[in-house]
Amino acid sequence: MERQRLVVIGNGMAGARTVEEILTRAPDLFDITMFGEEPHGNYNRIALSHVLAGEEDFDSIFLNSLAWYAANGITLHAGVRAKRIDRFAKVVYADDGSETRYDKLIIATGSRSFIPDIPGIRDRYSELRSGVFGFRTIEDTRAMLEHARGGERRAVVIGGGLLGLEAAHGLHKQGTEVTVLQRSATIMNQQLDAAGGEVLAGILQNMGIRVITNARTVAVDYVPRVGIQAVQVEGQDPIPCDMVVVTAGIRPETSVALISGFTVARAIVVDDLMRTVDDDDVYAVGECVQHRGEVYGLVAPLWEQGAVLAANITGTDPSARYSGTKTTTKLKVAGIDLASMGVRTPEREGDEQMVFSEPKRGVYKSVIVRENKVIGATMLGDASRVPFLTRAFDQGLDLPETRAELLFDLGTTPEQSVADLPDDAQICNCNGVTKGTIVGAVHDGCTSLGAVMDATRAGKGCGSCKEQVCAILAWAAGDAVTVDASANWYVPGVPMGKPELMAAIREQNLRSVSSVFAALAPDGQPDARSKMGLASLLKMMWGPDYVDERDARFINDRVHANIQKDGTFSVVPQLKGGVTSPEQLRRIADVAEKYDVPMVKLTGGQRIDLLGIRKEDLPKVWADLDMPSGYAYGKSFRTVKTCVGQEFCRFGTGDSTSLGIDMETRFQGLESPAKIKLAVSGCPRNCAESLVKDVGVVAVEGGRWELWIGGAAGAHIRKGDLFVTVDSREEAILLAGRFIQYYRENAKWLERTYTFVPRLGLEELQAILVADRDGVCAGLDERLQESVDNYADPWLDRDAPATPGQFRTALPLVALPLVPVRGGDA
Amino acid sequence: MSDAIEIDVCALGDLAIEEGRTYVVADEQLALFRMRDDTVHALGAVCPHRGGPIADGQCDEAVVWCPLHAFGYDLATGACVNGDFRLPRFDARVEDGRVVVTVPE
Ligand SMILES: Cc1cc2nc3c(=O)[nH]c(=O)nc-3n(C[C@H](O)[C@H](O)[C@H](O)COP(=O)(O)OP(=O)(O)OC[C@H]3O[C@@H](n4cnc5c(N)ncnc54)[C@H](O)[C@@H]3O)c2cc1C
Ligand code: SF4
Ligand code: FES
User: Fold this and answer.
1) Distance from CA of A687 to the nearest CA of B (A)
2) CA of A419 to the centre of ligand 3 (A)
3) With CB atoms counted within 10 Å of each terminal CB, which end of chain B scores lower, N or C?
4) In this predicted complex, what is the ipTM?
């Protein structure tokens, strides 16, 4: 049979979910074309809050990959906006000029951010000013993150609803100072009554988020080319800020439907079959629809709508009807438990309200009961009764006589354990997953939380049901439960923690990265992203006996230089301890001239960086410099920064430069799980910033030296821990080396010392490495010595390239081997 | 495909195992990858994200990862595995120790 043509406008959560529902019912009925204004596959919009807070990354929130569309034969026009529907000719016109015919059409255009006309918020072309953001899409979120991370440090969030508070929390977590302006007297006033709002505001203020209620925003101050300066609030001092996030509500995106002649009230009007009231072949679903007067702003309704729509459009169940959804909401702010459902306050005579409030502890509970049924509830600061209330609300359960049991777990009606839940009890309200489905997945072999979530989608919406999913998993799988072990794996492609992996490597005598994959990876499958970590580990373990497969190296390690954004490289010659000489400087200057080096720069680690070197020039540059590599590119020991020290400084008590040079001579080139930076300061004034280095040394009175470990002052800031104070430079070198070797052998791949040290604990490290509790010190010292003895300057590669074309350019900035085109013989 | 031609690009021995090498062939910039079984994949050489050098990426049997911002591309199709990009992909085979690539004319 000829397939019918189905066109879907809007590739968001409702559109894509509905298509999935259609495909499960009738995989071969339609040729499907989708238009999506956003240039991606469908993603979990809800999770943008987690992304903004740094709890998830963009890659992990996609629900439908491009491969999914391809595998299901769906033509996806991503980044293309549908402009107009001709319902008589049955054609969709899009802004790329295309015309697409349909037999059936689904409109799933969702909502957009509502941005009120506050003076100063838009430029004269009506575009949002730079520094003003909505919060709806990946692009919005990415732009906010870039702005917030770009040193902009003060944000005003206009609108104190659910979305606004999640935005505020996310930005706050990014280190931004946040003020939330709420027009009415209560934050989250859609879900909370006045008393609940007060308690929540108190919690937020304690977290460091400023909340101002009854705040009417009158203007945004903007200075051209400088940016946002402040937000003006009626009757108050202006609030200085660098960015403004507008979360003042959403509006259904109905423009296409409207200009194409469909009935639009607050949104596109649909019947119980999810058809538009104007045209039996055109359906609509999601936030862009109005059903029986309701417009929803949550995902749960659209799962139900999508199923009903699919049943009707495919004809698989023409009796399917949508009758509305009872919605519950949760605030996705880490550290705040807030669930709310139904009405906020009693509405009719006879409605009962049970309230408990304990603002000091941030607890507020309110339940509203009508005719012995829960019709609304707010639970803030204590989620223990939420599963019970949700079920009571959804299913209209009769309630216990003692109303206090609604608010507290009194132990009289034991909380239904997961075992007692009926199979059709809905666990994940976001994705509509029941207990039965989860149990089914467990029986099909999913024994870890991650596997269950992947298989069922439970927990992949707002994430607040994860605990319950865990409980069901534990109950259904019993002893078979596995942790998501991948968290402990050294690299993603080999399912083993580091000690276990090292043992297996030793036992099976695996000396190359490819042999590790063959022996230890699932199905012997190699994994590019695991190569670098394995290469580092094997090099450390086997030293000269390591079989060096060059493909296992990241490009930086293949060519011993740091790749730059344009594909050129940076060259940093070794200047031990940051000390150089006129002779070296002259050579560096000559090289910079000879190779037209675009930038010569001093680095934060006291080295000289030649930036913009072409790959093919690298060997010549090294030869002309005739200096060893400064290791500015690897996951390895990098530099020892030193201060002037005793020799010249009038404060100095120790010879910091010469100790730094000796340390660099010893540790040069050591590969390690992540980079290691050292510093040595000649007195506690600490000019070399020793307290924020992986290993920092400070000279103190009496010829003694302090060793500090686990410090950092980059993207992450941590003051190091005082590891040990020693009497001589020899001991300082010995203990620094011992710690480095222990870190090399025990840290996870890419784990910096600032995570490693607190993970193991300072006292534990002191016990092992200083007191030698476990008798491992001699072995560590010995293995470090082997690595030290094994050092060879990688820049000597220049004489004999390790692979054919090692230094050939990968981007044709200059002439490449041009292959002559001989006559076509195809 | 009448409007495609086959071009002898290089010797297999010019390619290092599971490293990329770039060639310009009929105005196309190609990144060639030689697998451990001596088959060869040919993709566009320039990352559609921010122009990164694909041949400098790390690969396994299935995917090559751009060295700049770690977008990965399926060696068999050119489709990006973690973003919405696509690299051009060309048929490549090895014949008598030579690498032969099919490019549009
Ligand atoms: C930060 C954030 C947090 C949220 N948290 C929660 C939560 O915790 N719980 C909850 O239940 N809900 C939450 N929501 C709401 C939830 O994301 C929405 O209810 C859901 O995405 C609605 O799905 P939809 O498909 O109707 O709309 P959308 O997901 O917005 O999809 C509509 C798509 O259609 C596209 N489109 C529009 N017009 C056209 C056109 N003319 N041509 C082509 N394409 C077009 C749009 O670009 C968009 O991609 C949250 C929303 C945000 C932004
Ligand atoms: S740390 Fe002390 S010795 Fe070193 S330069 Fe500063 S003041 Fe001088
Ligand atoms: S340029 Fe390739 S990932 Fe950014």
Assistant:
1) 34
2) 49
3) N
4) 0.90
